[in-house]
Amino acid sequence: MPHIRPSVEHAHHGLERRNALIAAAEPLPEIDDPAFGARFDRFGDARVVLLGAAAEGASEFFRARAAITRWLVEKRGFQVVALDADSADARTFDERVRGETGQGPPAASWAWRNREFETFLAGLADHNAARRPGDRVSVHGLDLHDLAFSMRMVVGHLDRIDAGCGRLARSRYGGLDPWAQEPGRMNITGRYAGCEATVTEMLREALRQRIEDAAAGEHPVADTETAERMLGEAEAYYRAMYYGGADAWNLRETHLFRRLKALLDDRGPDARAVVWGHNASVGDARATEMGLARDALSLGQLCREEWGAAARLIGFGCDHGAIGCAAGADGPMEVKSLRPALAGSHERSSHDAGLSRFLLDLRAGTARHAGRPLAEAALERFVGAAYHPDSERQSHYAECRLGEQYDGWVWFDETTAVTPSAAR
């Protein structure tokens, strides 16, 4: 993928993108207006609709995905909500929306412990209450490996043996963000290298216990064949995670896709799913620097390869505001100010369109298709669990062809941070 050119030509392309956005952007009503969800009915004939997020802890992204999902569930008959979340957390969510238990324990990850998500679950529970058990919408976590849980285990273990190793692990796990510049593979030496076998076996046994616990429950998250394959892959998965680089990301994205496909196969040929994830996972990696230069895969890419136009990928972007994020891979939630988007980025062009929120339909042949300018490479911002404003260009931007990466682009010019749930 050619690099962005900081020149007059670069500025010209930015102007072209802005003008294409102004022509194609469809202003959106307030999120709480029922008309908001109705704008996404055009994607309701898909088998899977993937909803992204440019940052983990933005209230607008949670509320917008909730509104779109409610529409697809209530008006289009989608039966599965699949989250890029640990399966243990999602089992609690599923029990709550099906009315099978009380509130249950809070989510292990800060990313799901917020009032916006709680409100969404309550709405699904109300929807399910009027339906027979077999017709109720189910909630599933696609990540049985649970990368965040694994990171916390490794960092805690290394902290106990050597504080320096723990610090090294914390800094290295930032390299699992596929958009970070030069993520590379760590050169493992010293005591950190000596812990590899112990850590890998510890994580493998933790995964085995999680699979056994799930199999004993009412809604198992892995059949025997899947469990055996996952345990067989566990050593490679955790070794890749331990060393960093693209291997861990690709293994995880492949696992997410397999879990999603198994869920749909289990529900039958007419089953349809709404998927919540990060833009890096939801978008098609083949239209990004991560895919072309770093061989990164994505869940969205794998869904397109499997289901073609029956998979719809919707990215979410923003310019500035506040977001919830974590201090590190295993840190608590904190609120940070999001810097305005860099010049030359898709976000800057979206901001310059002058609308507080809008939808771009990026599918070829649609009445307001944005066309060629958005099919050209430009910077796009990706903020994961952690946000590093002081190294924003290196830590959070990659070149992408927006028009090929997504089928739709949802814009909020300003964001607010999610509101943490009350402790219970």
Largest sheet: 9 strands, mixed
Number of separate helices: 17
Global outline: globular
Strand content: 15-25%
- Overall average residue pLDDT: 83
| Number of extended strands | 11
Radius of gyration: 21 Å
Poorly predicted spans: 1-9
- Structural class determined from secondary elements: alpha/beta
End-to-end distance, in Å?
Answer: 49 Å
Order of helices and strands: HEHEHEHHEHHHHHHEHHHEEHEEHEHE
| Share of helix, binned | 40-55%
What can you see in these coordinates?
There is one protein chain. With 424 residues, this protein is of the alpha/beta class. It is built from 17 helices and 11 strands. Strands 1, 2, 3, 4, 5, 6, 7, 8 and 11 form a 9-stranded mixed sheet that branches. The protein has a two-stranded antiparallel sheet with strand order 9-10.
Write the layout of secondary structure elements.
Elements: H1 8-24, E1 26-27, H2 34-38, E2 48-51, H3 59-76, E3 80-86, H4 87-97, H5 115-129, E4 138-143, H6 147-161, H7 163-173, H8 190-194, H9 196-216, H10 224-243, H11 246-267, E5 273-276, H12 279-282, H13 289-294, H14 299-307, E6 311-326, E7 333-338, H15 346-352, E8 357-361, E9 378-381, H16 392-396, E10 397-400, H17 402-405, E11 408-415
Parallel strand pairs: 2-5, 2-6, 3-4, 3-5, 6-11
Antiparallel strand pairs: 1-8, 6-7, 8-11, 9-10
